[in-house]
Design a protein that fits this description.
Layout: E1 5-9, H1 13-25, E2 29-33, H2 36-46, E3 50-54, H3 62-71, E4 76-81, H4 86-92, E5 100-102, H5 107-155, H6 159-173, H7 177-188
Parallel strand pairs: 1-2, 1-3, 3-4, 4-5
Helix pairs in contact: 2-3, 5-6, 5-7, 6-7
């Protein structure tokens, strides 16, 4: 098991300690915060795998804190609540994971929810990286195709000749075809 880092933010010391003790027994490294600002500071400094937020945090609104944590790509959030209500459900629809723990909680519920959150968060992160790579590849292809069209038009070359021209120029200058395509587009436009 990887050394997962979990921030537990709860204004109730006994609740916070209970969750941390449960997670520490399973080998997780825990960090504690008593309010929303503390949860944000810790999350920004360590980029935890999971942040467990009580919905009744002191200071900042827990939903705002969760939005900042997920919006800035710091972590994934699990809420802890006494009573799930429509506000919680509405906010969960905006979150990466639809996950919460109800107080009073039992240890198995906490373990299962944390494992579920870590597993799904890892999957989501892997898929996001794949999407970024595919988008980058697509953008590069678009630039190369545009440059190829300009080279064909300006130099009267076939598509294959224009591609080989761009490839040779990129090798001669020791730059990627993507960068070479940008230079050609800038030069020919």
């Amino acid at each position: 098991m990887k050394d997962y880092r979990i921030v537990v933010a709860d204004s109730s010391e006994s609740s916070r300690e209970k969750i941390c003790n449960l997670l520490n027994r399973k080998g997780y490294k825990t960090f504690q915060a008593t309010d929303g600002g503390g949860a944000l500071r810790i999350s920004r400094s360590i980029k935890p795998d999971i942040v467990i937020l009580d919905t009744n945090l002191w200071g900042m609104n827990a939903y705002e804190v969760a939005g900042i944590i997920e919006g800035d790509g710091l972590s994934t959030v699990i809420f802890v609540t006494n009573r799930p209500n429509s506000d919680l459900y509405d906010y969960l629809k905006k979150m990466t994971l639809y996950a919460y723990i109800i107080k009073p909680f039992n240890p198995e519920q906490v373990y299962q929810m944390v494992e579920f959150a870590i597993m799904n968060s890892n999957r989501i992160n892997a898929l996001s990286k794949k999407i970024e790579k595919l988008e980058s590849t697509l953008e590069s292809r678009k630039k190369i195709d545009k440059a190829k069209g300009l080279v064909m038009e300006k130099n009267g070359m076939s598509e294959n000749e224009a591609y080989n021209y761009i490839r040779k120029k990129s090798m001669d200058l020791s730059i990627s075809m993507d960068r070479m395509a940008e230079k050609i587009i800038k030069e020919y436009s």
